[in-house]
Amino acid sequence: MLYPPQILLPGPTPVPPSVNLAMQQAMSDHRGSVFTKVKDHVLVQLQELFDVGSDGRVAVIPTSGTGALEAAAQNFFLPGDKVIGVSTGTFGERFVDITEKMGVQVRHIRVGYGKAFDPEYILEVLKEEPNAKAILVTHNETSTGLLNPVVQLANALQFIADPPLLIVDSISGVPSVPLKVVGNHVDVIIAASQKGFMCPPGLGILAVSQRARNQVITDRPGRLFFNLQPYFDGQFPYTPAVSLWYGLEEALHLLAEEGEQPRLARHQLLSRMARAFGEASGMTPPVEEEFASPTVTALAAPKTMNPVEFRKQTARLGLQIAGAMGPWHHDYIRIGHVGAILPEQLFEGLATLAHLLPAGFDGLQAAWVTWHQAITIDEEVHS
Ligand SMILES: Cc1ncc(COP(=O)(O)O)c(C=O)c1O
Description:
Belongs to the class-V pyridoxal-phosphate-dependent aminotransferase family. By secondary structure, the chain is an alpha/beta fold. The protein folds into two domains: 242 residues, 3-Layer(aba) Sandwich (Aspartate Aminotransferase, domain 2); 124 residues, Alpha-Beta Complex (Aspartate Aminotransferase, domain 1). The strands form three sheets. It has a seven-stranded mixed beta sheet, sandwiched between helices. The chain has a four-stranded mixed beta sheet with strand order 1-12-13-11, with helices on both faces. It has a two-stranded antiparallel sheet with strand order 6-7. Strand 12 and strand 13 form a beta hairpin. Bound molecules: pyridoxal-5'-phosphate. The site of pyridoxal-5'-phosphate has 12 residues, from helix 3.
């Protein structure tokens, strides 16, 4: 194939050329000075990005996002513990499932697909579960393209004496959508390399507050690899994924170069463009605008084609988009715009979709107007 297909997926996401290049560096001793310097540099930058404070820590584990969720459950809970698990889609359900499989008693607040959780309701449930050790939530629910009000929940928990740990799956959120340990009062933020971190899949990242660090279970039987304690001291009892660390170092450099607020604004613009396209082309987005995810947008499948056929046709035209998950599988598709995606690249992808839709060019025009307005506002601000 002359060119790889274009991907507008909510992970894996495009890897910038300089990140790919960084990963081609020669192998070196993972206990030697070259790698140690990279590792220390990456950890310091991640600690800043997640704002873990002087006594919080970040662990980078060679695993996928699911592995990082499992690592969180293993390090903070024992069989018989009680937690509150909130699900707003497939990934919230997965976190609950992992935790239950560990023998933990989960009070499952099942909000359902396409709806955000209500922080007030979670606080009400907490009154009924005074012994809950933690609240598990999803920041950006990738299966539906929905951003939950995690910051509001975290703020509300501040008014409770000795609140449970707030453990957040932000795998498709951070760093495209900022979330901070100290700044937002979150105890554990879980991320993965293949989304906003613009790297290939393979690294799970856990940012942990001082309070959560003090609650890590250090002597759990049957666990070595996922014990977070050595990670907090910058050590690992195995050979790390050296090349991915090189890539992550470069990706962190690119993230710092763009800056947090411009990055969020770019993702929000991508979301508005995808939604404008959907609304004008008959692929109405099912999630309310207030809770629209900046990184992934679900759209109704076209009336003329089922989602599987639609995705086959887009792939034939050189564009990979995602199917919807769980009960949404038969009715929706998802467009990922997380990580290294610019408005012009999204526009190119939407142009491919437009070929397949009776009102596709109305959608394209709506996306263009949304983009153009953002450029005009930006120019006015900077003139
Ligand atoms: C919110 C969320 N949680 C968990 C996962 C699972 O991550 P992985 O596929 O890397 O195991 C994903 C992956 O898309 C996700 O988006």
